[in-house]
Amino acid sequence: MSKPAEAKPARRERKQRQRTALSAHGEPLLWLTGGAMGTALLMIIGLLAFVVVQGFGTFLPGRLVEVTTVQGQRWLGEVSLTELYQPEERVFAALPEVARAAARDRVQAQGGSQRRMLRVENYELTGEHYKWFSDFELAGEREPEWAVLVERREGGRFHGYPSHFLFDGEKVATTPAEAWARYEAEQDPSARRHEQAQELEREEIGAVNLRMERARLAVRKAELEHGAESPERAAAEAQRQTLAPALQAEYDAIGQRIQALRKENLRHQIVFTTADGTEKAIPVSEIVLAYPANQLTFLDRIGIYLHRWGEFLVDDPRESNSEGGVFPAIFGTVLMTLVMSILVVPFGVLAALYLREYAKPGLLVSFVRIAVNNLAGVPSIVFGVFGLGFFCYAIGTSVDELLFAEKLPNPTYGKGGMLWASLTLALLTLPVVIVATEEALSAVPGSMREGSYACGASKWQTIRRIVLPRAMPGIMTGMILAIARGAGEVAPLMLVGAAKLAPELPLDLHFPYIHPERSFLHLGFHIYDLGFQSQNSEAAKPMVYTTTLLLIGVIVILNVTAIIVRGKLRRRFQSTHI
Amino acid sequence: MSPTTQSPELRSGPILGKVFEAVSEGRAFATETHSALATEKQVLEVRGFELWYGAKQALWDIRMPIPHGKVTALIGPSGCGKSTLLRSVNRLNDLVDGVRIGGDMLLSGDSIYGPGVDVIELRKRIGMVFQKPNPFPMSIFENVVYSLRIDGERDRRVLEETCERSLQGAGLWDEVKDRLNDSALQLSGGQQQRLCIARAIAAEPEVLLLDEPCSALDPIATGKIEDLIEELKGNYSILMVTHNMQQASRSSDYTAFMYLGRLIEYGPTADIFRMPHLKETEDYVTGRFG
Known about the structure:
A: alpha+beta; 17 helices; B: 290 residues; seven-stranded mixed sheet; four-stranded antiparallel sheet; 35% helix
């Protein structure tokens, strides 16, 4: 018994030390939690800042530099990247003998070399989009006054010096300034003619084609419904026969008008000399944008910058998506997200209402709830596969057989499309809406329900008039989460409707105006396509950032709209008193 | 049955009187009901009502006539079953899982718990105001006419008349007449509670149930509600649960003292507070117990 008595003071001492233990202080936990929070914030802000800086920089017009290598080659381009590196021996070996020693000394003296990546373009002549130049390789560099950057409709950018202007094959201006002035004067009329031709091609030829196709489909339909030998088919065929010459004539007339416009446009050409002296004639109408990069004032630069943003936001893509605008993709993304929200919210709310208000709590309901939550963890590509198998192939083909038999074997609904993509994403985001709605429903105070029942309201009246309005902000939160998840989703869309090229929007002026079966462009898919599927991935890289920035912007706008609506609802339905 | 008359032996007994003893031991006893109640016209009659939450019995053989046009207060310590009894009148306890009942109540002679009673129709005849103000998430106007709306009333004139009459009745009209379309949730707590009273009387109920209507309010708002109860007296039959002895003595005509799920004593408020028949009641109202 004496031993424990002796041990006692020692234990007491230890206890005293424990009082100042680290875990007893607030600071370590504060640092731990704050650190975690800070790290997360840093990563998010870093990512966003990176995308914003890169994305906003894409359209800034740079200066054009002409470099002369020690071998005597001349290149004209925009500096797109500068870095320091340690050149390997074989780099020196490639240099001509006279320059080799000097280059070596220079690199040694500086402890490395700077090298720049020039966007040289003129792909059809050089076979290169980008080229690295180390400082020691260069014999000279300058920023020529008349270096012009040309963005062409096809064939990528062109860098060169205007040499003269051709009108009907005749030289009409012989100095760079004159040729440039002539180009600027001809620019607008040419662009107008080009637009006219395109409009004719798209709208009028499209309309004629549509009528031809309808006549053909009418024949096919009559054949399917009444048989190959039936009088109905014969009548439809006769109608097609009578229609065909008229349509053909119309078609030819439009074709001729287009030809005339094109021919007129070919009369005006501006001839450029590249850095190495090759001449290249470019029809004015083929030029989207051209500017003498080294003569620009600050305002000119801003003008070009804004012009490029404008083009990016409202134009169709060109050059397999790597140039031009992304308007169809914005349109497709927004429309798909809206359709998805319209589909998922009522469905999710009804399901949540049943689970929370009607179903008797028990094992089965808990099981269903767990299953719904698990659904949120299923990889999105699985939803894509399901959408493809169920919506496109199972439902879509049945719809085709029933309603669009005459178009077979071309599928109408039996392939990916706007509707199926929206439905697939609705399914994908359903758990989010159900969970958020259930939480919102359970947060409606019981006193409100009781108050309603005490007034003699039935269960449904209580739900409709009290519970749902009160839960509306929470339901909106679910919708916001669903939008955020759905708008940024790409993988399932690749299977059920997002396309690389979709010539027609899902909404247009041709009957029936809404075409939910059409495939569409999507910003998320566009990013993937630009970054990993384009031939000129280096040139597409800035566009990847810009498109990412745009996608983030679109999602932010959709979310902010929803948040504002939710704020209004909240002010209406929730109180600050008691 | 144990003796429940006002015998001197009982009045001078220990604080825990014979009735409490009987109650604690689960023996039956009869409520001490004062004779003054016999002369009153009844609007509601509780007939041997009993209630269980699952296996636990919460109300025992309550027999209680509620007089017409008067204010009846239910007092008693927490958990004595006052609110349960009140909520049984409009069958709100139906919403609670595992509730069983015995006996019946009659509202103007109609059975409340009888077979085939339409609960929703029944609740329309009974107004209720809760402990915490519970205005609905809608405008002041819509709150007041809620019971008409759920009946499908569309006539704007009828709705507006009802709204004005009910808000006047609840003494709230002058304060809110210019902002009927504002959210009810922006009102102060006291205003919200009067709005709830307006909502309850909009349906012209036969009985108005008040479940501790002032317990969540500040003294000034409480005073206004008490004045309002005074004004409503006569036009409405009010059954009120209260924790506040002063409130019961000020506002009510009759007072019922409940304990452990039994109705102990029931009579005119003045008698209950000044010369109760039972020792237990006296102890409770004088604050010696409770």
